[in-house]
Amino acid sequence: MTAATELTETADRSLLIVEDDKPFLERLARAMETRGFTVTACDNVPDGLSQIEKAPPAFAVVDLRLGSGNGLDVVAA
């Protein structure tokens, strides 16, 4: 089974995006929604960590250099 096939068959398609460039965040969120993901978009580390506590996502796209902190904190959570 290929990675693309596994992704297509994954039941949980929740995706957290943490990105402080708001125009890029909005474009990426829309693009991923059209690909069947349920997207939660955050523009800072505290919001990203809060979303993880509420409902851990199956997938995440995280900018590592964020003005509000280090994206690695989100990855670790």
Q: Give a count of the beta strands, DSSP E runs of length 2 or more.
A: 5
End-to-end CA span: 29 Å
Q: Could you give the order of the helices and strands? A: HEHEHEEEH
Rg over C-alpha atoms, rounded to the nearest angstrom? 13 Å
Low-confidence sequence ranges: none
Helix proportion of residues, in percent? 40-55%
Main β-sheet: number of strands, strand sense, barrel status? 3 strands, parallel
Number of helices: 4
Q: What's the pLDDT, averaged over the residues?
A: 90
> What structural category arises from helix and sheet content?
alpha/beta
Strand order in space, largest sheet: 2-1-3
* Portion in beta strands: 15-25%
From the spread of the alpha carbons, the general shape counts as globular
Task: Report on this structure.
The chain has 77 residues and is an alpha/beta fold. Helix 2 (22-34) links the parallel strand 1 (14-18) and strand 2 (38-42). The protein contains 4 helices and 5 strands. The strands form 2 sheets. The protein has a 3-stranded parallel β-sheet with strand order 2-1-3, sandwiched between helices. Strands 4-5 form a two-stranded antiparallel ribbon. The mean pLDDT is 90. The chain is globular and about 35 Å long.
In short:
This protein is an alpha/beta fold.
Pick out its properties.
about 80 residues; about 45% helix; single chain; three-stranded parallel beta sheet; alpha/beta
